[in-house]
Amino acid sequence: MEVLNNTTLPDSADVVVVGGGFAGAATACFLVLRGVRDLVLVEAEDHFGVHASGLNAAMARQVTSDVVTNEVLRASVAGITRTDGLWAEPVEVRPLGSLLLVGPGESPLLQAAGEAARAGLDCRIVDRADAVARVAVLRETEFDRAVFTASDGVVDIHALLWRYLGAARAGGVRPAPGVRVESVEVEAGRVRAVRTTRGRVACRVLVNAAGAWANRVAATAGLPPLAMAPFRRHLMTTPPLPFVQADWPFVWDTVHEYYFRPEVGGLLLSPGDQDPAEAGPVLRDPRALETLAEKLARHCPRLAGVPVSRWWAGLRTITRDGRFAVGWDTRLGGFFWVAGLGGHGMTASCAVGGFAADLVAGRPVDDRWRTAMDPMRLA
């Protein structure tokens, strides 16, 4: 796809979207579909999807412990897999399904899964025997029951990101990588322009989809931060393992917080770590390897000692209450947040992008979603 690179940005645009990951790309895409064409999409890195959008586990998970978040995720997966002609090309989604392992007794996750099932999601509570029959290495794992969701799976994250970017570009959006926001001009309580490393762009609306950098972008407009912060999480892959079956669902132990899924004959795993971090290059911490080894040895002994061939770390930006921050900032006219997606950015992108575009374009939205994701609750 053609992008602006090392060229001058336009002097003005109706909307400037800051951040070229899933949040910004999907919002730009849906703004075009809503008829907003005078739009610039700037990305600080030289390429799109460098950070969280390109470093995640690619797992589409539709059940969490929060009912409204589940509605967003369910709507988003349905949007990603639409075949009614909206999307020029399909994006591969391997419907492996998922097993979310839970302990004894009731839990918010089980209650939310029940709500999701009643709303039409293909999820159900299964017993140990059913879960072990699906993934044999769980035979000695500590859990009581599991939530099985058949339509969860693994997404081609790069194809999905470029679907949004391609649709936006086809609709007139000017994607511009390698452009950093230096300041936001404010006049009479409204956004008036964005000053970048490649020039000033006057605008009516600034969409802050800068991920871990979102609070920094807000600070350049004189806004105090929202109650959210970036956290580091590690992912590891193994070489091919003879016992791994390619059709296993992905497994997430929600009690001990680790997960794994099939990946090229082996496994992709995470220790589920969540360490506070700063926005910026993410350094690996060798202690994450130790954490994974300890969790597998204690809680999933049939995976104890699996070799790790590659490992990396990325950032997840999490809000104080775990819900997303999508909506207008009432402290500054024309300032709009699409942030705090908390590790669900890929899965939620289609619904969040559409919801954000509706709000920016002044279209009606679900009031429950508006309240649940209102960024002002975090101010």
Task: Summarize, please.
The chain is of the alpha+beta class and 379 residues long. It is built from nine helices and 20 strands.
Question: Can you walk through the features of this model?
Answer:
It is a single chain. The chain has 379 residues and is α+β, with helices and mostly antiparallel strands. The chain has two domains: 12-54 and 158-227 and 321-378, FAD/NAD(P)-binding domain (3-Layer(bba) Sandwich); 59-155 and 229-319, 2-Layer Sandwich (D-Amino Acid Oxidase, Chain A, domain 2), CATH 3.30.9. The protein is 27% helix and 28% strand. It contains nine helices and 20 strands. It has helices at residues 22-33, 67-80, 108-118, 128-134, 157-170, 214-220, 287-299, 345-360, 367-373; strands at residues 12-18, 39-43, 59-60, 93-94, 98-102, 123-127, 145-149, 153-155, 174-177, 181-187, 190-196, 199-208, 228-237, 250-253, 258-263, 266-270, 275-276, 310-319, 325-328, 335-339. The strands form three sheets. Strands 5, 6, 7, 13, 14, 15, 16, 17 and 18 form a nine-stranded mixed β-sheet that branches. Strands 1, 2, 9, 10, 11, 12, 19 and 20 form an eight-stranded mixed β-sheet that branches. The longest helix is centred in the last third of the chain and has 16 residues, at 345-360. The model has no long low-confidence stretch (mean pLDDT 95).
Assign an overall shape.
Answer: globular
Instruction: Please report the number of helical segments.
Output: 9
User: What is the average per-residue confidence, as pLDDT, rounded to a whole number?
Assistant: 95
CATH architecture of the largest domain: 2-Layer Sandwich
Assigned CATH class of the largest domain: Alpha Beta
Structural category is alpha+beta
Query: Can you tell me the number of structural domains?
Result: 2
